[in-house]
Amino acid sequence: MAARDGTVTHSWTEVQSLAIRAARGADVPAAQASNFGNMLTRHLADGRDEAPLSEALKTQGAIVDLALRVEKVIEAASISSAPVSLSEDAPYLCALLVSWFNSLPCRTQVQLSGNTMTVTLSLSEPNARARPARITLSAELYAQMHDLAANTYVPDSEASRMGGAGAEQMGLD
């Protein structure tokens, strides 16, 4: 639903699904794209700046690099309950790391000090953060994600139609 202020509002699930398809359209592997979709909706639900999201979608490899860094912290937390410190010089990546940790299904505590963050994960405790029913985002970010998601669509061809694509256009649905 479009608003007059240049924003759109959709359900959490719609935004998350679009973010996953956008990441896939940006050549991000499926598992990392799914995690990116979780992070993006958490980032927006927390009212954080959209610019880092847009930048990550434009920067080749940024999403995969973030996912790998988060996986390393999760692995460290599974071995020890000690906090894990990591540094990030790029402010947009630092912002996304915070949101990525906050989107995990476990209780997370992130403390920032300059470009260094200390992350404590309680893997046995659930994340109690509220999940709003609706997410508001800018029309620009929505359009960027929609354009990237279009890269995942099967091109119109006789072979795709034989495989079932476009069934509604042929009156078969």
Provide keyphrases for this structure:
49% helix, two-stranded antiparallel sheet, 173 residues
In short:
The protein is of the alpha+beta class and about 170 residues long. It contains 7 helices and 5 strands. The longest helix has 18 residues, at about 60-80.
Structure description:
With 173 residues, this protein is of the alpha+beta class. The chain has one domain (7-154). Helix content is 49%, strand content 19%. The protein has seven helices and five strands. The chain has helices at residues 12-25, 30-45, 51-58, 62-79, 91-102, 139-149, 158-162; strands at residues 7-11, 84-87, 106-113, 116-126, 134-138. Strands 2-4-3 form a three-stranded antiparallel sheet. Strands 1-5 form a two-stranded antiparallel sheet. A hairpin with a 2-residue loop joins β3 and β4 (116-126). α3 packs across α5 (91-102) and α4 packs across α5 (91-102). The longest helix has 18 residues, at 62-79. The mean pLDDT is 90.
- Helix and strand content put the structural class at alpha+beta
Total count of strands:
5
- List the helices and strands in order: EHHHHEHEEEHH
Rg:
18 Å
Domain tally: 1
Quaternary state of the chains: single chain
